[in-house]
Amino acid sequence: MIRPAVIILGAGAAGMAAAAALSQEGVSTLILEARDRIGGRIHTLNDPAFPIPIDMGAEYVHGDPQATWKIIRDAKLIAHDVPFDHYELRGNRLVHLENFSEELGRIMTGVPKADLSFAEFLRKHKARPDLANARRLAIHFVQGFDAADPQLASTQSIAEEWEGIGDFEEETQHRILEGHGSIIDHLHRSLDRKRVQIRLNTPVSEISWQRSKVTCKAGRNTFSARKIIVTLPLGLLQIPPDAPGAIRFIPDIPRKRIAANRLASGPVVKALFKFREPFWENPAVGRAVHVKEGLKKAVFLKRARSAISGVVDGVAAATVDADGLGRWAEGAGRWPGFRGRCSSIRPSIRSRSCFISLARG
Ligand SMILES: Cc1cc2nc3c(=O)[nH]c(=O)nc-3n(C[C@H](O)[C@H](O)[C@H](O)COP(=O)(O)OP(=O)(O)OC[C@H]3O[C@@H](n4cnc5c(N)ncnc54)[C@H](O)[C@@H]3O)c2cc1C
To answer: According to CATH, what is the number of the domain 6-77+179-232?
Structure first.
């Protein structure tokens, strides 16, 4: 057993990246992870039932995040473009949104320095009648793509994020052929085994800390180091210290709790469906929704609160809120060629809780 200089709490992308950086600097670390696997909200399923690796959590590389691209290059992974074309369902007709980028661009000008919620920004600064369509698309995008509540989401952060993505039509999004989990695998492989230890199935419940000494309690075990890096999901840090399930910090960290409580993360549920055949490639489906070129390249069909993404080789991933899942299933059931049994994919209490457990991290 190594004597770690640093404990890292959580073996998700943040924890594994921190471990890789410290390992490179020759610092000994101990990673404590509650689950029986590393990766956190990145979880690729390699199941013979599916023709490709399936991402249960994060799936797309949005824009140009340097750290992610460095790993993709170093690990020689294949990241393929995902078209970012937009269609809107009007009645039973799918309408191509020709000027999607320009419309969003009309909204994201003149963002004031003093931050305000996206809904308030639209009300105060973008109320002109000629912006009605742009406003509607922007709200859909904030809800559908960012999984954010416009009443709560910060306009500054939305603007920053959209700027990072770049031109929505020109700048493609990417999907890693081997699955997002290959990023975690690469980080894992890069760790110096003599200096880094990972303990799975170790949910930490208490962290006692002082300058240059920290002790973590997990069940009957305690672990000590000089420093700690905490990469727990936001939701956990927002639980009041005395509430069930909270992580206790001794002494408590009130300023950090205040900061955590000012942040919010959109609730997302991802459901994966495997279809017997790619029904959307059937020309009759394209005709039924009035799309001349068909739906062969359909990747991200979204409604305000729900989306089908990554329709590849007979596998569709729907990223929806829990209620949206039922609505989507009902909608899909009306498509010609769709042979899924919708009743079996309505969100039952059981499926809800397992989706939610993944979404919460
Ligand atoms: C369905 C879904 C789809 C997504 N799609 C995308 C996407 O397409 N592109 C994108 O960029 N991002 C996407 N995201 C977001 C992305 O997955 C997360 O931002 C990222 O994985 C978070 O990494 P993290 O290390 O910060 O947190 P996490 O991955 O949550 O890691 C935290 C770790 O801490 C562990 N932990 C929790 N409690 C304890 C405890 N008490 N003791 C020890 N360990 C504990 C958890 O088990 C977990 O492994 C998606 C998220 C979800 C849920």
So the answer is: 3.50.50.60
In this predicted model, what pLDDT tens digit does every residue of 275-307 receive, in sequence order?
777 777 788 888 888 887 777 666 544 443 444
Residue among 31, 32, 35, 41 whose CB has most ligand 1 atoms within 8 A, to mutate: 41
The three-point CA angle 78-79-84 to 5° equals 155
Terminal CA-CA length for the chain: 28
Q: What are the structural domain ranges in the chain?
A: 6-77+179-232, 95-171, 269-360
Cα 195 to averaged position of ligand 1 atoms, centre (Å): 24
7 lines ligand 1 (CB under 6 A): no
Answer yes or no: is the C-beta of 11 below 6 A from any ligand 1 atom: yes
Q: What is the number of residues in the chain?
A: 361
pTM above 0.85, yes or no: no
Any atom of ligand 1 within 6 Å of the Cβ of 42: yes
CA distances to 214, 293, 311 from 356, in Å: 31, 36, 22
Nearest 5°: CA angle at 23, between 20 and 26? 160
187 CA distance to ligand 1 middle (Å): 15
Residue 268 CA: which ligand 1 atom is closest? 1
Q: Residue 39 — left, alpha, or beta (φ > 0 → left; ψ -120 to 50 → alpha)?
A: left
Which helix (H) or strand (E) segment is 90 a member of? Answer: strand 87-90
Cα 173 to Cα 165: distance, rounded to the nearest angstrom: 8
